[in-house]
Each structure stands twice: as structure tokens, then as C-alpha cells.
Amino acid sequence: MTVFRDDILQSKVALVTGGATGIGKQIARCLGRHGAKICIASRKQENLVATAEELGAEGIECIWVRCDVREGQEVEHVVNEIVRQFGQLDIVVNNAAGNFPAPIQGISYNGFRSVVDIDLRGTYNVTKAAFESQLKYRGGHIVNITAPFQNMGVSLQAHVAAAKAGVDSLTRTSAVEFGPHGVRVNAIAPGATADTEGMDRFEGIEAGGDSPCPLGYVGAKQDIASMVLFLVSEASSYVTGQVIAVDGGTSIDLFKLKLPTES
Ligand code: NAP
Question: Among 57-66, 105-114, 247-256, whose mean pLDDT is lowest?
Fold first, then answer.
């Protein structure tokens, strides 16, 4: 499944927000398959239960806690539950996010606030609670799942781009503040990722260019999970404060130029 040894995360505990679905679920599975005990946290209990059972059947020790990452006290409860049940917390993946495609004029005041609250404030809440309770004392890793377009102008994503730009900023600041405590903080900017709700929401919306990216194919959830694994492993021990694109080169192919004969 990956190039890493199966037991590299043995004796580690990981929290994946939004870990019951999509990319977060694959991240939870990947960390679990490499030995970590997992907690997934999000709002819909039926998804949490189903995913915890599915991962459990695959041999992964996985608990779930219901939580809205916008609420500081709920987030603190998640961290306390992890410590109560597993005794520690080493890895935090801030993956939970909200999104819907809409032009600026089509986003309500509440819709804009909600996306910024989930993506940015949620990431802050989880980061703060996990650091104060555990990471500050034992070191560890935070990986924020961000997006590939916040440094450009991408239509229909004003709310998400603004929120994820904040997440990138928080990644750098927390890497600087937490570095002396042995905590590395990095972010992953996924490109369009196949078989996710995130992609489903864009069904029917036309993208420019006839190839998804320079590598020529749409990425998979495991591509993102593998980068998380790399970032929480010793292989990346001198990397912190970085936002790493996992997008097949989409973000560096600005004009998508092609000769007329090229297909
Ligand atoms: P997804 O399946 O919609 O996952 C979002 C998750 O976040 C869900 O499990 C959801 O669960 C949870 N969540 C939403 N609001 C929450 C809240 N207030 N509190 C706690 N949990 C909440 O999305 P995805 O497509 O896999 O995306 C995962 C991450 O990758 C996101 O950060 C997204 O921005 C990023 N990303 C995705 C793509 C893509 O192509 N899919 C591209 C670029 C970036 P509940 O609704 O049950 O709470």
C-alpha cells in the first residue's frame, strides 16, 4: 500500500477530523494500517460509527467522538476522550472542512462565515487544544489539509480560498511557535481528488483545459494519505511550516499551453 514499513506508527495515536468520509477516511485508514491508534471526529454519528466499524474490521483500533470543530469545548472534549481511552495524542490531521461552489454574490453572509469557521477556526481550535493538552509536552505532528488555489484567483471558491489562506498562515505560525517543543506542523494542498464528496459538489461545473494536470490523471485519496504518512514519519524530520501541493502539478501549470498538434 505504501513504501513505508507497516509498523512505523506503532505506539502512536492520531486524531483525524472529518475522518469518517472521503480523504480523511483514507488518511485514518493509512495511519491505522501503519500501526497508529485512531480517533475520527466529525458531526454525523452514522458516518462515524460506520467508518470506525469498517476500519476496526481491517484490524485498526479506531474510536470516534462526535464533534463540531467550530466549538472549542467540543474539541477539548475530543482531546480529553483520546487521552482517557488511549493515554496520549501524537498526530493531529486537521481535515474537516466545508465547501460549496458559489460566486461571491451567491454566498450568503452565513455561508461565508460557516466555511471560514469550519476550515480556519476549526483548525485553530483543534490545534490549540491538542497542543495545550499533549503535543506541548511530548512533541508530535500536525498536518493541515488545505487547498491548491488560495494564492490564485479561482471563481466560485472565495469563501474556501479565504479560509484556506488562513490555514496556510496558521501552519507557518504554529510551526514557528511549536518547533521548540518538538512539534512539526505542515500542510497538504490536494488537487482535485477522485471519489470524494468535495469533487462530487463540482459535478457539472466545467474546468478549463483538457487534461486534469501535467501528470495527466486525477489524483486518488491515497495520494494525500501517503503524503500525510511521509510528513508524520522520520523521513521528513527536518520539514516544518511547509504547504506541500499533492496535485500532479496542477498548481504550477499556469497557462496549460499546448501546441495545436498536441492532444
Ligand atoms: P468531505 O468528504 O466532504 O469531508 C469533509 C469532512 O469534514 C466530513 O467528514 C464532515 O463530516 C467533516 N466536517 C464538516 N464540517 C464539520 C464540522 N463543523 N465539524 C467537524 N467535522 C466537520 O470532503 P473531502 O473532499 O474528503 O475533503 C477533505 C479535505 O480535503 C478538506 O479539507 C478539503 O477542503 C480538502 N480538499 C479536497 C479536495 C477534493 O478534491 N476532494 C481538493 C482540495 C482540498 P460531518 O459533515 O459529519 O461533520
Answer: 247-256
Residue at 259 is within a domain: no
Residue 125 in any domain: the answer is yes
DSSP string, 99-159: -----GGGS-HHHHHHHHIIIIIHHHHHHHHHIIIIIHHH-EEEEEE--S-TTS--TT-HH
In a domain, 105, yes or no: yes
* 161 CA distance to ligand 1 middle (Å): 14
> Does residue 1 carry a pLDDT above 90?
no
- Ligand 1 neighbour 77 (Cβ under 6 A): no
Looking at residues 100-106, what average pLDDT do you find? 97
Q: Could you say which DSSP state residue 197 is in?
A: H
Q: Is 121 in the pocket of ligand 1 (CB under 6 A)?
A: no
Is the CB of 23 within 6 Å of ligand 1? Answer: yes
> Looking at residue 255, what is its pLDDT?
85
Q: What is the pLDDT of residues 123-180, one digit of tens each?
A: 999 999 999 999 999 999 999 999 999 999 999 999 999 999 999 999 999 999 999 9
Residue 258 lies inside a defined structural domain of this protein? no
The whole-angstrom separation of Cα 42 and Cα 56 is 18
Split into its structural domains, the chain has a count of 1
Q: Does this model's pTM top 0.90? A: yes
- The reply to whether ligand 1 has any atom less than 6 angstroms from the CB of 25 is no
Q: Best of 71, 146, 196 to mutate for ligand 1, by most ligand atoms within 8 A of CB? A: 196
Range of the domain at 158: 13-249
Using CA atoms, how far apart are residues 142 and 177, in angstroms rounded to an integer? 13
Task: Give the domain CATH number at 162.
Answer: 3.40.50.720
